[in-house]
Amino acid sequence: MIPVSYCSFAKFQEMGSKILIADDDDLVRTAVQKILTMFNYDVVAVESGREVIERVNDDFDVIVLDINMPDMDGFETLAHLNNTALDIPVLFLTGAGSMDYAVKAINLGAYDFMTKPIEDIDLFRVKVERAIEKRTFIRQERLYKANLEEEVLDKTRELAEKNLLLERYSDYLEKATVQIMSSLQTAMEEKDEYTAGHTRRVTEYAMLLGEAIDLSEEEQVVLRRASQFHDIGKLVIDLSCIQKPGKLSPEEWELIKKHPEVGASIIEPLTFMERERSIIRHHHEKLDGTGYPDGIGGSDLDTLTRIITVADSFDAMTSRRNYRRNLSTAEAVGELRRCAGSQFDPELVEVFAGVVLSASSLYKPA
User: Fold this and answer.
1) Residue 21: beta bridge partners?
2) Cβ distance 365 to 319 under 8 Å?
3) How far from each other are the two terminal CA atoms of the chain, in whole angstroms?
4) What pLDDT sits at residue 6?
5) What does each C-alpha distance from 124 to 42, 112, 147, 214, 342 come to in angstroms?
6) Cis before 293 (ω within 30)
7) Overall average pLDDT of the 205-220 stretch
């Protein structure tokens, strides 16, 4: 019956494991080399620890070290090996078989410890064989980790590519949604000579004011969208009453006042426009809290909402209506200033006044 250890040993024989031995005693070094060669190992023999450091590489499976060697002893050699990333099992082979030596060897990370001369060749073979098994395990673990890392990198790259595609698709959907809604609103406004071009002009005024106060690019994107859709609620409200001569009845006025809430509801499913939704809902609020639909004011109205309030009111005052004449730029600015502090933000009014008064000829209503 063939022993299990022999079968395992035969397997490693076929693999041609490579062993590095170091011993300053020529007779011992030659004897150990012959024993290992007899077991069909590929053996490299050197006579000092320094030569071990010079010759060692990742091809070796086991290192057999004498302890007492000149220049660099076995302990010093192992300390140097520990600073490499080779992880090669080290067997100490020494004639001084004291317990102190054995403890020091193990503490330094030696795989095993044997005394010389080698009297039990089978035991020596088993120790070498187990050291090779450990080295094989280390290599497999390295390979597994390398493959795992590569797989993680591949998956990360794949995920990044998919995320990029999703971002591009999401951006496309956002732009397509904005374009469709803009087209619908423009079509609605063009049906009425009194509202035609209103959204375009409000957007232009709002962006001029936003640029004048140095809004960030991100804020300008939100401001532009909120301006484009501030009146989108009018799409689903019958506002034919605004075309009649004379003032609106209380019922008609209440109907018109619903458009900010309706507009916010239309925008609500578009999660990428959450902030725009709030601005659309509150673009008819006043600084003193007397506006609609929620009656909020002061710090509850952010800068973008205050900008659109100024731009929307200015365009309403300078646009022709069937029941009143339109104001000139100077008159409208005067009205903005009169209501600054109660309805409008005073600082924004002054900045806006400077913008439109210096370029009033470029922004007359169509």
Assistant:
1) 45, 64
2) yes
3) 106
4) 39
5) 16, 10, 34, 81, 97
6) yes
7) 95
pTM of the model: 0.55
Token representation of residue 173: 């959907």
Topology of domain 191-362, CATH: Hypothetical protein af1432 (1.10.3210)
Name residue 136's amino acid. T
What pLDDT shows up at residue 356? 92
Torsion of Cα atoms, 112 then 118 then 119 then 121, to 10°:
70
Which segments of the chain does DSSP mark as H helices, in order? Answer: 4-15, 26-38, 49-55, 74-82, 99-107, 121-190, 198-212, 217-228, 250-256, 259-267, 274-282, 303-318, 329-338, 346-358
Calculated CA dihedral for residues 208, 338, 362, 260, nearest 10 degrees: 60
Neighbouring-strand partners of residue 188: none
3-class DSSP assignment, residue 179: helix
Q: Does residue 167 have a pLDDT over 80?
A: no
Judged on CB neighbours under 10 Å (0-12, 13-18, 19+), 241 is middle
In the numeric block, the tokens 């094989």 are attached to 136
Q: Where in the chain is the domain with CATH 1.10.3210.10?
A: 191-362
What span, in angstroms and rounded, lies between the C-alpha atoms of 264 and 299? Answer: 20
Give CATH 3.40.50.2300 domain extents, the chain.
4-142
Query: Is the model's pLDDT at 90 over the cut of 60?
Result: yes
Joined together, the tokens standing for residue 127 give 């120790």
Region 71-99 average pLDDT:
86
Q: What fold does the segment set 4-142 form as a domain?
A: Rossmann fold (3.40.50)
Cβ-contact 308, 230 below 8 angstroms? yes
Residue-averaged pLDDT of the chain: 84
Strand order in the sheet with 90-94: 42-46, 18-22, 62-66, 90-94, 112-115
Residues 38-49 as b or e (16 or more Cβ within 10 Å = b): ebebebbbbbbb
Q: Which tokens belong to 52? A: 């071990």
Whether residue 202 contacts residue 319, with contact meaning beta carbons closer than 8 Å, is answered with: no
What does the H/E/C string look like for 228-253? HCCCHHHHHCCCHHHHCCCCCCHHHH
